[in-house]
């Protein structure tokens, strides 16, 4: 009887081995330890805090939305696209550091920055590293016509500032102007001012007081308000961020309530109206988007955006969304032997929310813009 | 068939099993029981951290409210124009606030103080600012008297803020709190690898260990964490944020609707979870190895001892009993060894006894064998003698048979002589009478006394006498022919085709002299068509015997009776002949013996006791058939010969 206990079938022995070895092996594998293949990573750099965060925040969110939508459809090569986000705080040193970090992390493309001041400093870094950089709301002429790795989905200030001047001169009968511009983003502001002035003068208008300041020094704003009103002009143009524009509008209109004011596209965010209130009513603000559009694509985009982030996309959100989609489309579709930049420029035309984006051979794009007037706290597109 | 395994292997195997089973159980226990428990612990730990953070946040907020309320209570006339200086004093003292301002119902700033900004400058810049279009003003201020705003980008400071607002007469006091104050509470935790995040009710990031992130207005509503079900304002799960796999717990604050998320690196957490297991398994593996080593060593030792004992037992098995006493430290081994020695001893003794008994047995066997031999010889001798006797008997029987044959021949001859006697006697009488007649007529002729009538009488008498003579001679001739046939058949067992009926008639004719003396009727019912290809002589002998037997034995003297001879063809090949009588029958105990040689009821009265035996032999041997008898006492006997129509052929002997 006892001997019977020693009968062991071979498979039982094997089973025992499996039972022993399997958990032992498993226990040394981390619970979620699946090694991942190389993923596509998109870097972002832009002012996410401080006074330009009304550009940077929505711009980042626009990028995130585009990527999240793509990831929901399966990402690229079956893997979700990752993001690496850096805040440049509208500070050159920080921006350079941020871009260098992104390049070190071997991002496949960079979305940003959101201001020309940063762009002129970091574009050469990206070019040197041959990393594609897709600027969001960068319109300085300084980067126009250069065959580098910096691309943007917006035309340079030459186009827009010219259009604004044209509109004001022709439609509003503006003949003379004064301007205040921010030295902190001189690459954009000066470029814009220059284009505006050139166009205005070409049309026969004249410039009166041209003043500048560095954003952040609040004392100067009051002084500027008085100073700019010293000479009479048909319009005062603020080439500043939204907060400064609102404060200046309040100051100027407190002194001279009837004065006509305009801003550059930069200030054309929701914050201008939030802070400007009644002081910004009637102001002319060029825009990269038509907020009142009833276009289904736009409404859907806006709706999704608000649901996701709890605020309006504004122009930075939409531009960033469009620009990111261009980059993602080519990252996904480009042939292996083609660089991302080549692919984007070869394909040239891309559909976007509100009009197509068309790149020239230098990576500068043509896109639609609108002149709006603030009425009852809304940007109302003016017939052109 | 059971395959035997070595002790060493078995011990190793069993010990390994003993070591492995707890490991398996432990691992199983770990995976099914401990791991979820540990995870639950982590969740609970995260919850308690979140609870702490909630408390801190709420304290911070409560403090802020208290400060503002105190300020309101202390400032007697806050609607007066000089109020901004008071606010400024307050704000420079209370580090929590970035800015405090009063707005009127239309959204215009009435008075304001901003941290790090000269009061007059703030006053100049912001007084009368219209913030009626701001998120803050639009969303909440008109619906509630006092409360907290959602997170918003402050138009005044340009920072992500939350604001406490409270209605004071016709104005609303707004105290903005820069949320980058909050992360301080989570910095210590961050050093421990725990991420603590504060989210507003729109899942916008308010506070994070990295203050930069707090300022970025990051909306986290797409975190995978929020996909897990929420229970009692708490949920836990894995999620990815900023490329990092995290495991976290969200605890929602009831009043504000804000959330605290406590998260940690999932991989690190899992490592924490599995580390104890790995250590445990490591330790167990060491134990396993140790156990294997020890069991190997132990099994070797056992092997050595068992080997020793085995060699001894092998020796014993081979009949070498001079095994040495061994000494072991293990009691059982010692006992086994002692038993082995004792066993060897006992076996040896028993073998001696057995050996002795064996010797006796051998001797006994020898004697027996001798006796058997002797008996065998005497038996053989007896047997030989018996055989000789049988032989003698057989030869005697042969002689008897021969003499019987001769006797029957003699009787036959006597019969023949008797049969012939009558016709020949008649012929002799007739011829001598004729001679007498002839002499009379001659004398008369010589006498001349012859008369015609005398002559005519003489002629008549002469004719009659010669007729009688001729007839009787013819009859004698017939008899002789018949005898010649029987004699020929008797003497030579000639095989031929013959008619059964003819044979029977011939027999009856030859038997007539003997049968006629008794008042017994002979009935024959033999089919005249029945033809046999057989040996008529032996068959006649058999029938002759059976009929005579009936006459001799079946009836008392002068008793009337009947002897019946019947025949019938059983089929084409077999023929049955019955010889039956209605005599006294054969007693039942004699019936089996009737065919035995020398069986007779008339011993001493002329019966040899061989007749039926001979018949039986002839029927079975020569004719290839069977002879049976059926008899009932006082009713008669019936002998049945069953023979083939065509007798078997025999080689000449």
Key terms:
heterodimer, A: 384 residues, alpha/beta, 5-stranded parallel β-sheet, 12 helices, 15 strands, 45% helix, disordered N terminus, B: 653 residues, alpha+beta, 6-stranded antiparallel β-sheet, 5-stranded antiparallel β-sheet, 55% helix, 18% strand
Word description of this protein:
The complex is a heterodimer of chains A (384) and B (653). Chain A is of the alpha/beta class and 384 residues long. Helices cover 45% and strands 17% of the residues of chain A. Chain A has 12 helices and 15 strands. Chain A has helices at residues 10-27, 53-72, 92-104, 116-128, 157-171, 186-203, 218-228, 242-255, 270-276, 296-309, 314-333, 340-347; strands at 41-46, 82-87, 109-111, 132-135, 150-152, 176-182, 206-213, 235-239, 261-263, 284-287, 349-350, 357-359, 365-366, 370-375, 378-381. In chain A, the strands form 4 sheets. In chain A, strands 2-1-3-4-5 form a 5-stranded parallel beta sheet. Chain A has a 4-stranded parallel beta sheet with strand order 7-6-8-9, with helices on both faces. In chain A, helix 2 packs parallel to helix 11 (314-333), helix 3 runs parallel beside helix 4 (116-128) and helix 7 (218-228) packs across helix 8. The termini of chain A are far apart. Residues 1-10, 15-19 and 26-36 of chain A have low confidence and may be disordered. Chain B is α+β, with helices and mostly antiparallel strands and 653 residues long. Chain B is 55% helix and 18% strand. Chain B is built from 12 helices and 18 strands. In chain B, the strands form 4 sheets. In chain B, strands 1, 2, 3, 4, 5 and 6 form a 6-stranded antiparallel beta sheet that branches. A 5-stranded antiparallel beta sheet of chain B has the order 8-7-11-10-9. In chain B, strands 13-15-16-18-17 form a 5-stranded mixed beta sheet. In chain B, a hairpin with a 6-residue loop joins strand 4 and strand 5 (160-168). The longest helix of chain B is centred in the middle third of the chain and has 117 residues, at 331-447. The interface between A and B is large, with 56 and 55 residues.
